């Protein structure tokens, strides 16, 4: 029985865990539970999936991928992990536009929290969804596609609408990526030329370790095909394969140094074959409108003395706007300021609250799957469709059987 999340900072309070394998079994579990929460691969750092009654693990909701070449989509069981889908797509000559840093997360769990990779021209992983099959707590099986009125509210669902049993995702013909990592870019240069740096390749990530708050330690670039990244002069490519954490072996990272490889072996930072069962770290992330990214990074730099003693690494990523109500990129292009922390939760939470307060003036949205102080007033201010989402959740789950304390901010809306 799974009792803890990946990071081990959440021990689920469920009295039972059920692992249904198909829609009928999902309906049976839902019918027998007073309170229930779907659980994907358990990679979230918050109590979002917690319940004191029934955890519905999606680990067996992994129906094999069905590719529709004409529609350029793939339909797959919601519990499937990206790391399982990706090789099946590649084998048929297809690709996803993007991946998160880790391919081991479940697809339905990732899209429920607005998970994203990086790329100025690329949307969140949620924005690749073209339709969903959802089993609601009353047992109805609902298929929601882009053409339906509920769709924009139903993708980033926080698991508050029902159990996503199938997901249909956009695909495109397979493509090659060359990954190169550059070292020691002065932060002032990165901020002065922010658009050029973040747009230097198909996907760009900035990594800062905060020993020196004036330096971006690494710039990871993932360029499509034969394209070369266009970075400001004077920044050198790392002489060998590197990890984003100081002193850690790069064995788990995807190939760098410009060695071409298919999308699935380059878009994630970590190799499919490397499966970390748990991690001695915590994560938080704040996402700001692209237009405020430079000011927001400056505001974070002003907190460097608070951040440095607890941080492992910060990652800055970009993403294209979408229309999904609870997406971090709802309504505007966005930039994510991610923090991987040492596992010292109380101290980390205090600094996370400080960062969130400092970034409030910039319309900052927290990542739903990472540590956040979850201030209901702030959430309502930055997600204009939050009340509409609460109404949608009441319609799909009229008795509130999917509610838990994490989601209580929805009750006041
Ligand atoms: C090492 C690591 C790296 C990460 N990298 C990134 C990254 O690059 N980018 C990023 O944005 N985030 C990243 N994250 C965060 C992660 O992507 C999210 O927490 C994501 O939600 C995890 O997916 P999961 O399947 O583990 O979901 P869980 O944590 O299991 O669940 C998350 C939410 O989804 C709901 N849910 C799960 N499955 C279903 C379903 N079938 N139907 C309905 N609701 C469901 C749950 O109820 C819960 O509310 C990372 C996390 C870790 C630990």
UniProtKB/TrEMBL annotation:
Coiled-coil positions: none
Protein name: FAD-binding protein
InterPro entries: ALO_C (IPR007173), FAD-bd_PCMH (IPR016166), FAD-bd_PCMH-like_sf (IPR036318), FAD-bd_PCMH_sub1 (IPR016167), FAD-bd_PCMH_sub2 (IPR016169), FAD_lactone_oxidase-like (IPR010031), Oxid_FAD_bind_N (IPR006094), Vanillyl_alc_oxidase_C-sub2 (IPR016171)
An annotated Gene Ontology molecular function: D-arabinono-1,4-lactone oxidase activity
Assigned keywords, A-Z: Oxidoreductase
Domain named FAD-binding PCMH-type: residues: 10-174
SUPFAM superfamilies linked to this entry: FAD-binding/transporter-associated domain-like
GO cellular component terms given for this protein: membrane
PANTHER family attached to this UniProt entry: D-ARABINONO-1,4-LACTONE OXIDASE, L-GULONOLACTONE OXIDASE
């Amino acid at each position: 029985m799974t009792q803890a999340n990946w990071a081990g900072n959440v021990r689920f309070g469920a009295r039972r865990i059920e692992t249904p394998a198909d829609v009928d079994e999902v309906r049976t579990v839902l019918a027998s539970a007073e309170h229930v929460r779907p659980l994907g691969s358990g990679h979230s750092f918050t109590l979002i999936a917690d319940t004191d009654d029934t955890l519905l693990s999606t680990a067996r909701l992994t129906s094999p991928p069905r590719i529709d070449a004409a529609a350029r989509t793939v339909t797959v069981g919601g519990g499937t992990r990206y790391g399982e889908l990706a090789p099946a797509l590649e084998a048929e000559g297809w690709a996803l536009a993007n991946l998160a840093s880790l391919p081991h997360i479940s697809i339905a769990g990732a899209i429920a929290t607005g998970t994203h990779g990086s790329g100025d021209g690329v949307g969140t992983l949620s924005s690749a969804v073209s339709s969903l099959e959802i089993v609601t707590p009353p047992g109805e099986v609902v298929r929601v596609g882009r053409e339906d009125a509920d769709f924009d509210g139903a993708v980033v669902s926080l698991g508050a609408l029902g159990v996503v049993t199938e997901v249909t995702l956009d695909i495109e013909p397979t493509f090659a990526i060359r990954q190169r990592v550059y070292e020691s870019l002065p932060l002032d240069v990165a901020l002065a030329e922010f658009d050029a740096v973040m747009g230097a390749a198909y996907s760009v990530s900035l990594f800062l370790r905060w020993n020196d708050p004036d330096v971006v330690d690494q710039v990871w670039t993932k360029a499509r095909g034969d394209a070369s990244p266009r970075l400001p002069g004077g920044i050198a490519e790392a002489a060998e394969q590197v990890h984003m954490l100081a002193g850690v072996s790069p064995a788990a990272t995807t190939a760098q140094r410009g060695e071409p490889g298919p999308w699935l072996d380059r878009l994630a930072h970590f190799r499919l074959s490397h499966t970390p069962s748990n991690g001695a770290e915590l994560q938080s992330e704040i996402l700001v409108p692209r237009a405020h990214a430079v000011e927001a990074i400056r505001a974070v730099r002003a907190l460097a003395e608070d951040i440095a003693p607890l941080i492992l690494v910060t990652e800055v990523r970009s993403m294209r706007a979408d229309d999904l109500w609870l997406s971090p990129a709802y309504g505007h292009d966005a930039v994510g300021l991610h923090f991987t922390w040492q596992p010292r939760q109380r101290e980390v939470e205090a600094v996370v609250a400080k960062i969130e307060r400092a970034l409030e003036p910039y319309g900052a949205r927290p990542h739903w799957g990472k540590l956040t102080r979850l201030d209901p007033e702030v959430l309502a201010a930055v997600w204009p469709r939050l009340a509409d989402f609460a109404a949608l959740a009441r319609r799909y789950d009229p008795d509130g059987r999917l509610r838990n304390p994490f989601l209580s901010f929805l009750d006041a809306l």
